[in-house]
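Tutorial, part two.
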Amino acid sequence: MNWYLAVLKNYAGFSGRARRTEYWMFVLVNFVISAVLNILATWAKAFSIIDLIYALAVLIPAIAVGVRRLHDTGRTGWWLLIGLIPIIGTIILLVFLVTDGQPGDNQYGPNPKYATAVA
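Running the prediction step on this input gives:
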């Protein structure tokens, strides 16, 4: 949960790098919250509105952490747009997101793996 909160605290931070753990823990918690809200929305209409508000609230942090994750692999954040290409683009983006970050510093900053971990 700390990784999820760390992404939300860095709400619109598109610079720097994000570890795989930071990205995938955010995706996991976001998926669980969205799934619960979707299930509740089938029972009560009010949860549909809450689900929409939640989705809009985490849209920018999700894009920002995706860009920082691509920076960790040495790619520009514009590669996130390749996911718009059906099937092939999604597969390519998934490979980029699961790839280990570049060791050492790169043009986007120091390696976050060796920086202070989130407590």
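The longest helix spans residues 20-43. In part three we will examine how such features are distributed along the chain.
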